[in-house]
């Protein structure tokens, strides 16, 4: 699932004079180190659904876990398009990043094992790996679905100076 580095497109129209594109390495580091993201999905009737949740970044892909009956999982069954965002809640400093893509279930056991190790090392969250999902020894019974979001587009919003950079894969 890993991807090559994206094409960088600096948008001077939405940036302060003298601002430059944020380096991809800085954006990738934020994607890797951020513990919490906001996941935006769309309900069947078109209303948005937004929740905070932990993620892990592996091989250029964001991953998250959820119960099959949770609203986000229900939404993704009918519409896989989603947005994940993270950053700083400061006006004049930091970097905000928005990842657009489609959420796809991860069912490959070896990939799930890699992800379980990352969840443990990054968040001290222990997941047991089943044939095609996670189980939380301390949580509710039943499977926990794991999703991968391969970025179609990533936007980075720098502050001080304000800048907007798009990182695009493929087309």
Structure characterization notes:
The structure is a single chain. It contains three helices and eleven strands. It is α+β, with helices and mostly antiparallel strands. The strands form two sheets. Strands 1, 2, 3, 4, 5, 6, 7, 10 and 11 form a nine-stranded antiparallel β-sheet that branches. It starts with 6 loop residues before the first strand and ends with a strand.
How would you summarize what this structure contains?
This protein is of the alpha+beta class and 171 residues long. Helices cover 19% and strands 41% of the residues.
Offer a few descriptive terms.
alpha+beta; 3 helices; 171 residues; Pnp Oxidase, Chain A; globular; nine-stranded antiparallel sheet; single chain
Looking at CATH, which topology would you report?
A: Pnp Oxidase, Chain A
The shape is globular
- Helical content band: 10-25%
Mean pLDDT figure: 93
Topology:
Elements: E1 7-10, H1 24-33, E2 36-42, E3 48-54, E4 56-58, E5 61-66, H2 71-78, E6 81-86, E7 95-105, H3 109-123, E8 127-129, E9 134-136, E10 145-158, E11 163-168
Antiparallel strand pairs: 1-11, 2-3, 2-6, 4-5, 5-10, 6-7, 7-10, 8-9, 10-11
């Amino acid at each position: 699932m890993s991807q090559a580095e994206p094409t960088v497109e600096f948008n001077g129209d939405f940036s302060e004079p003298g601002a430059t594109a944020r380096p991809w390495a800085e954006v990738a580091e934020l994607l890797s180190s951020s513990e919490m993201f906001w996941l935006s999905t769309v309900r069947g009737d078109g209303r948005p659904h937004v929740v905070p949740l932990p993620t892990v970044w592996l091989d250029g892909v964001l991953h998250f876990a959820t119960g099959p009956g949770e609203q986000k999982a229900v939404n993704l069954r009918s519409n896989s398009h989603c947005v994940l965002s993270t950053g700083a809640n400061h006006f004049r400093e930091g970097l905000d990043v928005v990842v657009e893509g489609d959420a796809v279930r991860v069912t490959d056991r070896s990939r799930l094992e890699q992800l379980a190790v990352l969840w443990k090392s990054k968040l001290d969250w222990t997941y047991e790996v089943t044939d095609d999902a996670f189980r939380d020894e301390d949580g509710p019974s039943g499977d926990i679905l794991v999703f991968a979001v391969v970025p179609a587009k990533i936007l980075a919003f720098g502050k001080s100076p304000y800048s907007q950079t798009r990182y695009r894969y493929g087309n």
